[in-house]
Specification:
Layout lengths: L2 H17 L9 H10 L5 H4 L5 H10 L11 H12 L4 H5 L2 H37 L20 H12 L4 H9 L5
Helix pairs in contact: 1-4, 4-5, 8-9
Length: 183
Protein backbone atom coordinates (compact mmCIF):
# COMPACT_ATOMS: atom_id res chain seq x y z
CA UNK A 1 0.00 0.00 0.00
CA UNK A 2 1.29 3.42 -0.92
CA UNK A 3 0.02 6.79 -2.11
CA UNK A 4 -1.52 5.13 -5.15
CA UNK A 5 -4.02 3.44 -2.82
CA UNK A 6 -5.19 6.91 -1.86
CA UNK A 7 -5.36 7.77 -5.57
CA UNK A 8 -7.74 4.83 -6.03
CA UNK A 9 -9.85 6.03 -3.08
CA UNK A 10 -9.98 9.51 -4.62
CA UNK A 11 -11.18 7.91 -7.84
CA UNK A 12 -14.01 6.21 -5.94
CA UNK A 13 -15.01 9.54 -4.37
CA UNK A 14 -14.88 11.37 -7.72
CA UNK A 15 -16.90 8.59 -9.34
CA UNK A 16 -19.56 8.76 -6.66
CA UNK A 17 -19.69 12.57 -6.77
CA UNK A 18 -20.04 12.53 -10.54
CA UNK A 19 -22.52 9.70 -10.95
CA UNK A 20 -24.39 9.60 -7.67
CA UNK A 21 -23.45 5.96 -7.03
CA UNK A 22 -20.47 3.84 -6.14
CA UNK A 23 -18.40 2.26 -8.90
CA UNK A 24 -19.16 -1.23 -7.60
CA UNK A 25 -22.49 -2.02 -5.99
CA UNK A 26 -22.58 -5.77 -5.28
CA UNK A 27 -24.55 -6.56 -2.12
CA UNK A 28 -22.47 -9.58 -1.09
CA UNK A 29 -18.95 -8.88 0.20
CA UNK A 30 -17.13 -11.60 -1.78
CA UNK A 31 -18.80 -10.44 -5.00
CA UNK A 32 -17.98 -6.81 -4.21
CA UNK A 33 -14.32 -7.67 -3.61
CA UNK A 34 -14.21 -9.67 -6.85
CA UNK A 35 -15.74 -6.76 -8.78
CA UNK A 36 -13.24 -4.30 -7.30
CA UNK A 37 -10.31 -6.55 -8.15
CA UNK A 38 -11.38 -7.82 -11.57
CA UNK A 39 -14.19 -5.82 -13.19
CA UNK A 40 -14.15 -2.35 -14.68
CA UNK A 41 -16.74 0.05 -13.27
CA UNK A 42 -19.56 1.26 -15.52
CA UNK A 43 -18.44 4.28 -17.52
CA UNK A 44 -19.39 7.44 -15.64
CA UNK A 45 -20.89 9.15 -18.72
CA UNK A 46 -23.31 6.21 -19.09
CA UNK A 47 -24.73 7.08 -15.67
CA UNK A 48 -24.51 10.86 -16.06
CA UNK A 49 -24.28 12.22 -19.59
CA UNK A 50 -23.22 15.66 -18.27
CA UNK A 51 -19.81 14.39 -17.13
CA UNK A 52 -17.04 15.80 -19.33
CA UNK A 53 -15.07 13.08 -21.08
CA UNK A 54 -11.80 14.45 -19.70
CA UNK A 55 -13.15 14.10 -16.15
CA UNK A 56 -14.22 10.56 -16.97
CA UNK A 57 -10.67 9.81 -18.15
CA UNK A 58 -9.26 11.20 -14.90
CA UNK A 59 -11.68 9.15 -12.79
CA UNK A 60 -11.03 5.94 -14.70
CA UNK A 61 -7.27 6.44 -14.51
CA UNK A 62 -7.59 6.79 -10.72
CA UNK A 63 -9.59 3.53 -10.66
CA UNK A 64 -7.10 1.47 -12.68
CA UNK A 65 -6.62 -2.01 -11.20
CA UNK A 66 -2.83 -1.95 -11.61
CA UNK A 67 -1.27 0.77 -9.42
CA UNK A 68 1.36 1.34 -12.13
CA UNK A 69 -1.41 2.44 -14.52
CA UNK A 70 -2.88 4.96 -12.04
CA UNK A 71 -1.67 8.46 -11.38
CA UNK A 72 1.51 8.17 -9.37
CA UNK A 73 1.00 11.34 -7.34
CA UNK A 74 -1.81 13.69 -6.38
CA UNK A 75 0.10 16.43 -8.18
CA UNK A 76 -0.43 14.61 -11.51
CA UNK A 77 -4.18 14.56 -10.86
CA UNK A 78 -4.16 18.24 -9.97
CA UNK A 79 -2.36 19.06 -13.22
CA UNK A 80 -4.94 17.15 -15.28
CA UNK A 81 -7.85 18.70 -13.38
CA UNK A 82 -6.43 22.19 -13.96
CA UNK A 83 -6.00 21.44 -17.66
CA UNK A 84 -9.57 20.20 -17.80
CA UNK A 85 -10.95 23.35 -16.18
CA UNK A 86 -8.72 25.82 -17.99
CA UNK A 87 -10.78 28.01 -20.34
CA UNK A 88 -9.56 26.88 -23.73
CA UNK A 89 -12.60 27.35 -25.90
CA UNK A 90 -15.40 29.84 -26.47
CA UNK A 91 -17.96 27.48 -24.94
CA UNK A 92 -16.04 27.46 -21.66
CA UNK A 93 -15.90 31.24 -21.61
CA UNK A 94 -19.61 31.61 -22.23
CA UNK A 95 -20.54 29.64 -19.13
CA UNK A 96 -18.59 31.62 -16.57
CA UNK A 97 -21.27 32.87 -14.18
CA UNK A 98 -22.20 29.48 -12.73
CA UNK A 99 -18.70 28.17 -12.10
CA UNK A 100 -17.81 31.39 -10.27
CA UNK A 101 -20.61 30.69 -7.85
CA UNK A 102 -19.45 27.12 -7.26
CA UNK A 103 -15.84 28.30 -6.99
CA UNK A 104 -16.88 30.79 -4.30
CA UNK A 105 -18.76 28.03 -2.52
CA UNK A 106 -15.76 25.72 -2.76
CA UNK A 107 -13.46 28.42 -1.39
CA UNK A 108 -15.89 29.08 1.43
CA UNK A 109 -16.05 25.38 2.25
CA UNK A 110 -12.25 25.10 2.18
CA UNK A 111 -12.06 28.01 4.62
CA UNK A 112 -14.97 26.92 6.80
CA UNK A 113 -13.97 23.28 7.15
CA UNK A 114 -10.82 23.84 9.24
CA UNK A 115 -12.63 26.41 11.38
CA UNK A 116 -15.49 23.97 11.99
CA UNK A 117 -13.03 21.15 12.73
CA UNK A 118 -11.18 23.38 15.20
CA UNK A 119 -14.45 24.34 16.88
CA UNK A 120 -15.41 20.67 17.22
CA UNK A 121 -11.99 19.83 18.68
CA UNK A 122 -12.18 22.68 21.19
CA UNK A 123 -15.70 21.70 22.21
CA UNK A 124 -14.63 18.07 22.60
CA UNK A 125 -11.61 19.10 24.65
CA UNK A 126 -13.74 21.28 26.92
CA UNK A 127 -16.30 18.51 27.42
CA UNK A 128 -13.62 15.90 28.14
CA UNK A 129 -11.76 18.24 30.47
CA UNK A 130 -14.95 18.98 32.34
CA UNK A 131 -15.85 15.31 32.61
CA UNK A 132 -12.41 14.05 33.68
CA UNK A 133 -10.91 16.89 35.66
CA UNK A 134 -13.99 18.18 37.45
CA UNK A 135 -15.84 15.07 38.54
CA UNK A 136 -19.02 15.70 40.45
CA UNK A 137 -18.69 15.16 44.18
CA UNK A 138 -20.70 12.27 45.46
CA UNK A 139 -20.53 9.61 48.10
CA UNK A 140 -22.11 6.21 48.42
CA UNK A 141 -24.10 5.69 51.60
CA UNK A 142 -24.71 2.16 52.78
CA UNK A 143 -27.45 1.41 55.28
CA UNK A 144 -26.40 1.45 58.93
CA UNK A 145 -27.02 -1.98 60.46
CA UNK A 146 -27.95 -2.39 64.08
CA UNK A 147 -26.41 -5.64 65.38
CA UNK A 148 -28.13 -5.36 68.78
CA UNK A 149 -31.40 -6.70 67.38
CA UNK A 150 -33.20 -4.28 69.67
CA UNK A 151 -36.40 -3.28 67.89
CA UNK A 152 -36.82 -0.17 70.02
CA UNK A 153 -33.70 1.45 68.53
CA UNK A 154 -34.14 0.14 64.97
CA UNK A 155 -35.34 3.59 63.91
CA UNK A 156 -31.93 5.00 64.91
CA UNK A 157 -30.09 2.88 62.32
CA UNK A 158 -32.51 4.05 59.67
CA UNK A 159 -32.21 7.63 60.88
CA UNK A 160 -28.42 7.60 60.74
CA UNK A 161 -28.48 6.49 57.12
CA UNK A 162 -31.04 9.14 56.25
CA UNK A 163 -29.08 11.74 58.20
CA UNK A 164 -25.89 11.05 56.29
CA UNK A 165 -27.78 11.28 53.02
CA UNK A 166 -29.55 14.49 54.02
CA UNK A 167 -26.53 16.21 55.57
CA UNK A 168 -27.59 19.21 57.58
CA UNK A 169 -31.01 17.86 58.51
CA UNK A 170 -31.82 19.27 61.99
CA UNK A 171 -33.49 16.00 62.99
CA UNK A 172 -30.19 14.19 62.40
CA UNK A 173 -28.35 16.70 64.59
CA UNK A 174 -30.98 16.25 67.33
CA UNK A 175 -30.68 12.48 67.10
CA UNK A 176 -26.90 12.67 67.48
CA UNK A 177 -27.28 14.96 70.53
CA UNK A 178 -29.74 12.52 72.15
CA UNK A 179 -27.21 9.76 71.63
CA UNK A 180 -24.52 11.93 73.21
CA UNK A 181 -22.55 12.25 69.98
CA UNK A 182 -21.28 15.49 68.42
CA UNK A 183 -23.21 16.60 65.33
Amino acid sequence: MDARTDIYALGVVLYEMSTGRRPFTAEISPQLIDDILNSPPPLPHELNSKIPLKLEEIILKCLEKDPEDRYQTAKEIAVDLRRMTAPSSVSHRLVTSRPKRSVRLARFLWAATPILALAILVLGWVLLRTAYFNPSRSIAVLPFEDDSKDVSIQYISEGITEGVINNGDPRFSALLKRMGLPD
